[in-house]
Design brief:
The protein is of the alpha+beta class. Helices cover 33% and strands 17% of the residues. α1 runs antiparallel to α10 and α2 runs parallel beside α6.
Length: 305
């Protein structure tokens, strides 16, 4: 059986052979982690949409403690504070729909990486609630960072604290994260769909946490049930791609395989059959240069190593 270091050497060699725009690659095998720098990067780098997996984890944590349910509606949570914006359309949109990006909205918006955040106003929840569902929730996948800002505010409503406090207390310290940073909106909440800055090895730890069913070094952080639900197929994007609760699926891949991806080709891929996590960080401006590396990593991850 190949070690984490041996698998890392193969993936790193593949990345170098095509001059892949990667900062670092991390492999975790049977709990053993190995990281290799490919190009000079920062101590921590932008995760972009990999942040969504960390938001899903926070929602799972409050659900595990009975403070929230995936059946709770957006209307129940916010109609008291935003009565004019929480129209009847939000009565049928649940936390589960928001997690699976099947709220029924027409198009994506509130992208803090590429949009003018000044246009969002002081309270970013206002434009989110103004974009009311136009399709029946649960029937149509629509990728939008607005969904995960909404989840950031849902966490805060359920837990009575911003989501960053959860990350620091329940994940970053217990799991031994190094330097980290998070963007916030004018009201102090994470953008949700983006905004976390971590090292490659720490980013990979989220995949390992889910691989281990929510347990980290003997300490239970999430329920096994949440880990299963979050990484299961909850929505179909296309013939080849599916979505869980912030996590992605390949339709034709082994059923238990899952991954998280972000702009500029950040990625955390988890292969439960081989007890393996492969993660990378980089800056692929066109999101199109890492195809051979991803294919190679998937081939390794699915093989009898």
């Amino acid at each position: 059986m190949m070690t984490a270091g041996e698998i890392l050497s193969l993936v790193a060699a593949k990345a170098r052979s095509i001059d892949a725009p990667l900062y670092a690659i991390t492999v975790i095998r049977d709990g053993e982690a190995a990281t290799e720098e490919i190009r000079l990067g920062n101590r921590v780098n932008a995760l972009y949409s990999v942040t969504k997996g960390f938001v899903s984890t926070a929602i799972g944590w409050v659900c595990d403690r009975g403070l929230l349910s995936t059946d709770t509606t957006v209307y129940e949570l916010f109609s008291g504070d935003y009565p004019e914006l929480c129209t009847d359309a939000w009565r049928y949109c649940t936390v589960g729909h928001v997690l699976s990006q099947t709220t029924g909205i027409e198009h994506g918006f509130l992208d803090a990486d590429f949009d003018d955040v000044q246009s969002f106003g002081e309270d970013w929840l206002i434009p989110v609630l103004q974009h009311t569902p136009v399709h029946q929730p649960g029937t149509r996948f629509c990728y939008s960072d607005s969904n995960f800002y909404l989840l950031s505010r849902i966490y805060a409503r359920a837990a009575g604290e911003p989501i960053g406090a959860f990350w620091e207390r329940e994940l970053f310290r217990p799991m031994g994260f190094s330097l980290h940073a998070s963007a916030v909106c004018p009201m102090g909440h994470s953008p949700g769909g983006t905004g976390l800055f971590l090292s490659c090895e720490d980013m990979a730890k989220l995949g390992q946490l889910y691989l281990q069913g929510g347990v980290w070094q003997g300490q239970r952080i999430l329920s096994e049930d949440w880990c299963r639900r979050a990484t299961a197929l909850q929505a179909v994007i296309s013939d080849t791609d599916g979505y869980g609760y912030g996590f992605r699926k390949y339709i034709c891949a082994p059923q238990d395989e899952f991954f998280i991806s972000g702009a500029k080709n950040q990625g955390v891929h988890v292969y439960p059959e081989n007890n393996l996590v492969i993660a990378w960080q980089g800056h692929d401006r066109q999101n199109n240069r890492l195809g051979p590396v991803i294919e190679y990593a998937n081939a390794l991850g699915r093989s009898a190593l």
